[in-house]
Amino acid sequence: MEHQVYVPAPASRLREALADPARVARAVPGLQQDAGAAPGTGRLKIRIGSHSITYRGSLRVGVRGDGSYVLDGDATEARGAGTVKLALTLRLTDADGGCTVTVTGTASAEGRVAELPAEAVESAAKRLLTRFVEGLGQAPADEPASVFETEVPPPSLAPEPEPVEEQVEEPVDEQVVEPLPEIFAEAAHARRTMIGRSAEEVDHAPPRGRYAPVPAPQTVAGGSALRWAAPAAALALASAIVVTRALRRRR
Question: Of 28, 69, 72, 213, which has the fewest beta carbons less than 10 angstroms from its beta carbon?
Answer without folding.
Answer: 213
